[in-house]
What does this fold into?
Amino acid sequence: MGILLLSLGGLGWLICWIIVLIKMFKTEKPLLGIIGIFCGIWAYIWGWMNSGKHGLQKIMLIWTGCIILYIIGAIMSGNFSASAHIGTSP
It folds into this structure.
């Protein structure tokens, strides 16, 4: 179940990121779109800041939901607990 949530959240996250990037390139300077490619958090923040102006409310709500699904899936599948075992003996 955790892997399913992780996968669905990650796929939705990727699709929403691409949609916001396309909107960035169409409405802003190309440099902002390029920054959004290399720094996904910038695209996320830009999307929320401009959601009313560019009609991105639904996409940003879906993107936020996908992030939450991804985090829940990672916790359920144990991917967050792996970093706690660094430096310990098996």
